[in-house]
Amino acid sequence: MSGLTKAALLVVAALVVGYVAWVAHFEWKLGRDQPQGPTSLVIVTTKSDGSNHDRVLSRLVDDDGSLYVAVNHWPRAWYRQALANPQVQITMDGETGEFLAVPVEGPQHDYLMERFPLRFRSRLQMGFPPRYFLRLDPVT
Predict the structure, then answer these.
(1) Which of 1, 109, 112, 128 is 20 to 30 A away from residue 65, measured at CA?
(2) Within 10 Å of residue 93's Cβ, how many Cβ atoms?
């Protein structure tokens, strides 16, 4: 292997390590700070030991009024917990209620990917994780 090839491999390796570190730092900071805004909600899921776990998420509301959340990041314990125990608590706009978290698949998933797209920069910053959606149905 020539010196030029080795140097190129080192540059590529440094870029990959730098990118992974940048994504990890972004995800760590987001998880630590959990910023809230006017379109945020707080979801409370149940861990396997029975304790609660809360996470701030962006809410997505479709034209028909259906409420969704997207799984946009690599850290997704809350999502696995919602799949294992779909009875969740949601707080938004100062009100708290019980909801059923329903995974969205197939054509509905494809529709939501188009309806609520992520910008390339956002996907780049998150490390291109697979994206899933949950519909949040109020429990009456």
Answers:
(1) 128
(2) 8
- Judged by DSSP in three states, 70 sits in strand
Structure token pair of residue 86: 């779909």
According to DSSP, residue 134 is labeled: E
Residues 102-128 pLDDT 10s? 999 999 999 999 999 999 999 999 899
Q: What is the pLDDT of residues 23-40, one digit of tens each?
A: 888 788 876 777 778 889
- Residue 31: strand, helix, or coil: helix
Q: What does the DSSP assignment read for 83-99?
A: HHS-EEEEEETTEEEEE
Q: How far apart are CA 14 and CA 45, in angstroms?
A: 38
Beta strands 87-92 and 67-71, pairing class = unpaired
Rg (CA), the chain: 18
Residue recorded with tokens 């409370």? 44
